[in-house]
Amino acid sequence: MFPTLPVFLAFTVSCGSDSSSPTPPVATNRTYDISTFGENFLPASQEIAAGDTVRWTFSVAADNLGHNVLFKPRVAGAPSDIPAEVRSGTRSLKFTTKGDFNYVCDLHGAMTGIVIVK
């Protein structure tokens, strides 16, 4: 009975050192939602990781205008703007560069948000 334990341990060590079949990486990219509500982005601040996506869901404001997303000031690594007025539906942008990305709806100048990419 004594040899069973060392054989088991040897098997465990042997399996742990086998590098012929690597474990595939786990996908960590996530999608975060930001909505328009009246003349606000909710949430106004969103922290994400590089490679993650932000999906904006748009609705019409009280003044019957839609919204857009313009990154201002424009900094290196910012994704493309969503320049057209969007009255409903969703638009998604992937963030690949770390940094702080401030954005505004220029149809409602006080409507601002930030995506913080860690």
Topology readout:
Blueprint: H1 4-16, E1 31-37, E2 40-42, E3 45-48, E4 53-58, E5 67-71, E6 82-86, E7 89-94, E8 99-104, E9 112-117
Parallel strand pairs: 1-4, 3-9
Antiparallel strand pairs: 1-2, 4-7, 5-6, 5-8, 8-9
What would a concise description of this structure say?
The protein is built from 1 helix and 9 strands; from the N terminus they run αβββββββββ. The chain has 118 residues and is mainly β. The chain has one domain: Sandwich (Immunoglobulin-like).
Explain what this protein looks like in three dimensions.
- The chain is mostly beta strands and 118 residues long.
- The chain has a single domain (27-117), classed as Sandwich (Immunoglobulin-like).
- The chain has one helix at 4-16; strands spanning 31-37, 40-42, 45-48, 53-58, 67-71, 82-86, 89-94, 99-104, 112-117.
- The strands form two sheets. It has a five-stranded mixed β-sheet, with no helix packed on it.
- A hairpin with a 2-residue loop joins strand 1 and strand 2.
- It starts with a helix and ends with a strand.
* The named CATH superfamily: Cupredoxins -  blue copper proteins
Give the SSE order as H and E letters: HEEEEEEEEE
Biggest sheet character: 5 strands, mixed
Morphology call: globular
